[in-house]
């Protein structure tokens, strides 16, 4: 069963907007790479309503948090290429990515565990699993696409800044005054250092991008397996209904056969009594004569 930790407070970079009880603080995880793995689902001997509710609540909470992080990234995307495109913006984007990637990974593992739990549940629980899987698919796909747009926009602005820096270098080479040249070199070195830091941040954000296909390929198999289980359950119910109807028909036939048999026995008994009376009468008549 999922362990309950404190819900991340406030509206931090990867925080969600829901309250109402403790949730695990997935946003506190700091993964350097955005790989998403699925934990092996453990065996279970029966359905656990408590674990089902806990996992469902955690998954729903994380879907909301991923959606909230996507909204925050949309705001940061609008600032790229503007005067507010500063190192603090790139640091914020990376922070949001790190926390949200951790939520995506944990939610993927929780969906895998929830599948193992609902194998022993009813149709309603299986439908709930399918609903959560579809919602998770949609929100992660949107989040991953936005990550790629931000990465592309930052790479483009970096190339533009590099182009302007190269132009400054050429202009400085033609400067006639040594003092002016030294001053320009100092400024260029500072710009070079800033560009190197910016390049490092852009590459870091590019490495944050999650491959949504990796997640959805596994989850689509999960949904397909659930569909096969639902078909098997429906076929079993129909077969059971047919067997019950056939059994009822056989019982009715047996009851009619028993009534017919009793009727025949009664007639034979009556005939035997009549024959006995006739024979007795004949014997008595002979004795009297």
State the gist of this model.
With 289 residues, the protein is mainly α.
For the largest beta-sheet, the strand count, sense and barrel status come to: none
Number of strands: 0
DSSP helix fraction: over 70%
Radius of gyration: 39 Å
Beta percentage is under 5%
Shape: rod-shaped
Low-confidence stretches: 1-23, 25-33, 37-44
Question: N- to C-terminal separation?
Answer: 102 Å
Let me know the average pLDDT: 76
SS element count, helices: 5
Class per helix and strand makeup? mainly alpha
Helix-strand pattern: HHHHH
Question: How would you describe this structure to a colleague?
Answer:
This protein has 289 residues and is mainly alpha-helical. The chain is 76% helix and 0% strand. It is built from 5 helices and no strands. Residues 1-23, 25-33 and 37-44 have low confidence and may be disordered.
Question: What labels would you give this structure?
Answer:
mainly alpha; 76% helix; 289 residues; rod-shaped
Task: Map the helices and strands.
Elements (H helix, E strand, L loop, with lengths): L48 H31 L7 H32 L4 H51 L4 H30 L4 H77 L1
Helix pairs in contact: 1-2, 1-3, 2-3, 2-4, 2-5, 3-4, 3-5
């Amino acid at each position: 069963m999922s362990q309950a930790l404190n819900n991340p407070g406030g509206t931090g970079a990867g925080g969600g907007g829901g309250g109402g009880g403790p949730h695990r603080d997935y946003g506190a995880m700091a993964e350097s790479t955005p790989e998403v793995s699925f934990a092996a689902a453990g065996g279970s001997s029966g359905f656990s309503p408590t674990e089902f509710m806990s996992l469902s609540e955690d998954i729903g909470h994380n879907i909301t948090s991923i959606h909230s992080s996507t909204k925050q990234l949309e705001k940061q995307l609008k600032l790229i290429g503007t005067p507010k495109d500063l190192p603090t913006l790139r640091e914020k984007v990376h922070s949001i990515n790190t926390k949200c990637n951790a939520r995506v990974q944990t939610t993927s593992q929780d969906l895998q565990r929830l599948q193992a739990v609902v194998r022993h549940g009813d149709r309603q629980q299986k439908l709930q699993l399918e609903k959560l899987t579809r919602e998770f698919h949609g929100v992660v796909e949107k989040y991953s696409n936005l990550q790629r747009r931000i990465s592309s926009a930052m790479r483009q602005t970096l190339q533009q800044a590099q182009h302007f820096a190269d132009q400054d270098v050429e202009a400085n080479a033609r400067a006639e005054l040594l003092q002016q040249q030294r001053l320009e070199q100092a400024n260029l070195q500072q710009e070079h250092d800033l560009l190197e830091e910016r390049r490092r941040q852009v590459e870091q954000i590019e490495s944050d991008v999650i491959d949504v296909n990796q997640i959805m390929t596994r989850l689509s198999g999960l949904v397909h397996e659930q569909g096969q289980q639902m078909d098997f359950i429906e076929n079993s119910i129909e077969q059971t209904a047919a067997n019950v109807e056939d059994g009822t028909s056989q019982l009715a036939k047996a009851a009619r056969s028993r009534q017919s048999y009793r009727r025949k026995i009664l007639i034979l008994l009556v005939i035997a009594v009549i024959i006995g009376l006739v024979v007795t009468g004949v014997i008595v008549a002979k004795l009297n004569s």
